[in-house]
Write a structure and sequence with these properties.
The chain is an alpha+beta fold. The chain folds into 3 domains: 85 residues, no CATH class; 135 residues, Beta Polymerase, domain 2 (2-Layer Sandwich), CATH 3.30.460; 107 residues, OB fold (Dihydrolipoamide Acetyltransferase, E2P) (Beta Barrel), CATH 2.40.50. It contains 6 helices and 19 strands. The strands form 3 sheets. Strands 1, 2, 3, 4, 5, 6, 7 and 8 form an 8-stranded antiparallel sheet that branches. A 5-stranded mixed sheet has the order 9-10-13-12-11. α5 crosses α6.
């Protein structure tokens, strides 16, 4: 399985000494869609090549920073009908690969604590989760040499079949406890503040989905998060085959009809709409039978609901088409404070 460079999980270093994390599997011909993550700053708490760097996480802050200091890395995509961040090909200095980083760590003479624990976790998942060595990678701040004591372990597992089969094995691994376990209640409270801080989602609503998720937890005292990427043979089309139109905000109730792709990035849920509660598009222009799925590139929405469950969803409604033939509506969830997908009691 050949994994191309410049996809979800990779990082880009550009000529301005900025580090971006790549988003998605498809990109325009002239650039990679990626979001600013680290930038040089005299008060930075991370050091690489004698330069100090700061990390920026909040999405709005990322846009504000680039628009103020590096507006050339923000552009409007007609295909996506949204303003996104990206680095043009000629401005890319280096692309960092999780697969390559994982391989290189085996030959590195001295490992940091997080690098050592990352390798141990990979070894555990390979031996007990039966993941091929060629299908696992390590990403995040440590991959680009900018980790610190608060950094966590970010792993990538590649391959559709491998990922789906591994989920069952991961359930058993986590059930055995240390060194690899789920969050405890105190850790879930901290995780809640980070995941849904600023929204009006209650802790009980948060826990209804979060406590059963398998792709996150604690290993050797480090938080870990696992992302899953489908096999390239399962990537449908190219960037230019997809077109989206922003139709405003929507709130609705729906039933999950298929959760197979809920573990992947981007995650997808097939739905049957029960009732539209609010919408900015006139009802005569939106057929509920054409609103077929929920999507997100945010890890917080992975494993959020399972087939048969009813959910409340609030997000951006988009009219989508593939190769100008397949046309449908979808809900895109990206905003931490305003977008929601909550499992309902009834």
């Amino acid at each position: 399985m050949d994994i191309p460079l410049g996809i979800e999980g990779d990082y880009i270093e550009n000529k301005d000494n900025l580090f971006f994390d790549v988003k998605g599997l498809f990109h325009p011909q002239d650039r990679k869609i990626c979001f600013i993550r680290f930038y040089t700053h005299p008060d930075g708490d991370r050091i690489k090549d004698d330069k100090k760097f700061k990390k920026i996480y909040d999405l709005n802050e990322r846009y504000s920073f680039l628009k103020k200091f590096y507006p050339q890395y923000v552009f409007f995509s007609k295909n996506l009908d949204i303003e996104v961040q990206g680095v043009q090909n000629e401005d890319i200095k280096r692309i960092y690969s999780p697969l390559e980083y994982y391989k290189n760590l085996h030959h590195k003479p001295k490992l940091s604590n997080i690098e050592e624990s990352s390798l141990k976790l990979c070894k555990l998942l390979i031996s007990e989760g039966y993941i091929p060595k060629s299908s696992i990678g390590i990403t995040g701040s440590s991959m680009v040499g900018l980790s610190n004591e608060s950094s966590d372990i970010d792993l990538i597992v590649y391959g559709t079949k491998t990922c789906l089969e591994f989920q069952d094995k991961l359930r058993k691994i986590l059930s055995e406890g240390d060194p690899c376990r789920k969050y405890n209640l105190k850790e879930f409270h901290s995780h809640y503040d980070w995941r849904v801080g600023g929204s009006n989602i209650s802790f009980d609503d948060f826990m209804r989905s979060e406590q059963r998720k398998l792709h996150q937890g604690i290993f050797n005292g480090f938080e870990f998060f696992i992302r899953y990427i489908k096999s390239p043979d399962d990537w449908k089309g190219s960037f230019y085959d997809y077109k989206y139109k922003n139709c405003g905000r929507i709130k609705l109730k729906a039933e999950i009809s298929d959760d197979t792709d809920s573990i992947f990035t981007p995650c997808t849920y097939k739905i049957n709409v029960i009732k539209i509660l609010e919408s900015e598009i006139p009802s005569n222009e939106l057929n509920v039978y054409d609103l077929t799925e929920i999507n997100s590139f945010r890890g917080r929405f992975c494993e959020q609901a399972v087939k048969g469950e009813k959910v409340f969803v609030e997000g951006k409604l988009e009219k989508a088409s593939f190769q100008d033939k397949e046309k449908f509506f979808r809900i895109m969830l990206n905003n931490q404070k305003t977008d929601k997908m909550l499992v309902l009691d009834k």
